[in-house]
Amino acid sequence: MLMAEADYRSVRKDPRVAYALWCVVGILGGHRFYLGDTGRSIAMLFTFGGLGLWTLLDVFFVGRRVHAVNRARRSAIMVRYGIIED
Q1: Which residues form a coiled coil (predicted)?
Q2: Hey, CA dihedral for 33, 38, 40, 43, is it positive or negative?
Q3: Inter-residue contact 81 to 4 (CB < 8 Å)
Q4: Any idea what the Cα angle at residue 2 is, between residues 36 and 81, rounded to 5°?
Q5: What is the DSSP annotation of the chain?
Q6: Does 86 have pLDDT greater than 80?
Q7: Among 3, 5, 2, which residue's Cα sits nearest to residue 73?
Q8: What are the C-alpha distances in Å from 64 to residues 3, 9, 29, 40, 43?
Q9: What Cα–Cα distance (Å) separates residue 44 from each residue in 33, 36, 37, 69, 85?
Q10: Percent of the chain scored above 70 by pLDDT?
Q11: Cβ distance 49 to 28 under 8 Å?
Q12: Which distant-in-sequence residues (6+ apart) come within 8 Å of 49 by Cβ?
């Protein structure tokens, strides 16, 4: 269990980093790249964040997305270590 938790701590995403990226390079999808949403990131990159609209809306969704990504990563690690079943 300790090894699984250590692995999770090494791959989990920090909401503060995601919001900082949203502030600095949000219009280019930097926060989405950080969270592993490559398809959406590329779409934001080429449309300048949906001309800013998508970027503005993301302020409400970044925190939720960070939690979803962390939940999925933690579950995958727990399955890999056999702590929970898929």
Answers
A1: none
A2: positive
A3: yes
A4: 65
A5: -HHHHHHHHHHPPPHHHHHHHHHHHGGGTHHHHHTT-HHHHHHHHHHHHHHTHHHHHHTTTHHHHHHHHHHHHHHHHHHHTTSS--
A6: no
A7: 5
A8: 26, 18, 16, 16, 20
A9: 10, 13, 11, 19, 36
A10: 99
A11: yes
A12: 26, 27, 28, 29, 55, 56, 58
* The length of the chain, given as a count of residues: 86
Place of tokens 């995403």: 13
Q: Provide the pLDDT confidence category of residue 1 given band limits of 50, 70 and 90.
A: confident
For residue 12, give both structure tokens.
Answer: 């989990």
